[in-house]
Every structure is written in C-alpha cells, then in structure tokens.
Amino acid sequence: MNKEQIADLFMRGQDCGQVVLDQYAEFLGLSKDDANRLTAAFGGGTGIGETCGAVIAAMMVIGMKYGHKGPDDPEHRNVIMAKRAEFIGKWKERRCSCMCNDMLGDDISTPEGFGRILESGKLFTLCPEIVTDALDILNEMGINYKG
Considering its fold, how many domains does the chain have in total? Predict the structure, then answer.
C-alpha cells in the first residue's frame, strides 16, 4: 500500500489505525468490518492527540501474533514484551514520538489545531508516511500481511 492510496482512504474517512489493522485483518482471522470497528476510536491519537492510531493498531497486530493468553502463559508474555520493545525501538529510529500532537506539531484535538493541520496538508502527506512506517516496521519484524 502506497502513500497515495493511504491518503485516498483518509479523504474517504478512514483513520490511520484502521488502515494498519485493515491490512492485517485476513492474516489475523478478522473480518475487515471488525478490524475497522476495533480501531475506529483511535484516529487523532484517540481523539486527544496522544498515541497515534497507527502505533496502537500495530501493537494490536503484534498482540494478535505473539501475545500471551492470560496469567498462566509466561512464555508468551516474554515474547510479546520483546516484540513490543522491538517495534518501539524501530519506531523511535524513524519518528520523534508515538504521539500525534508531537508528530504533527500541533494539537489535533482542538478545532483550531485540527484546522491548522488540515491547512498545512499534514493529514494527507505526513500521516500516510506514518502509516507506511508502521506497516514497514511490522514487515521488518517478519509480520507480513501478505503471508
């Protein structure tokens, strides 16, 4: 998926987390509808400019692939902690932060900040790059949605 396709999805109302998890839905045994509903609340850093929905969705992918099933599954708990750290380490090599407001340089949760972000074009230029980074990092980790 390229940045132009991602920007088109944004223009049609899909959010960053939805784009990420949607790519992995079939691989993870989810319907695309369920994947989109699971991540629908994450846009704009859960609406308050905090953790980017693309990062949250990537963590969901990592959790579905490697996560522990409960308190009696310590082996998988160690694996998920290592995979989470691997993702975050790779993310920090590419981005200043996991926070929407930091990456966008403005407060996406306010009408004024959101307006400036739209006016700057970052929602359709920077955000697709951020989604691409999340997908690329998952791929680098060996979690490829194409099988």
Answer: 1
Q: Residue 89 has which token pair? A: 């380490």
Cα 83 to its chain centre, rounded Å, is: 15
- Does position 147 have pLDDT exceeding 50, yes or no? no
Is 146 domain-assigned?
no
Give the whole-angstrom CA distance, residue 65 versus residue 75.
Answer: 14
- Identify the bridge partners of residue 99 per DSSP, sorted by sequence position: 51
Residues for the chain: how many in total? 147
Q: What is the CA radius of gyration of the chain?
A: 15
Instruction: Answer whether residue 118 is part of any domain.
Output: yes
CA gap 69, 74 in Å, rounded:
9
- 28 is in which domain, residue-wise? 3-140
pTM exceeding 0.70: yes
Q: For the chain, where are the alpha helices, taking DSSP H only?
A: 3-11, 16-28, 32-38, 43-44, 53-66, 74-94, 100-104, 111-120, 122-140
Q: What is the mean pLDDT of residues 72-92?
A: 93
Is the CB of residue 7 less than 8 Å from the CB of residue 121? Answer: no
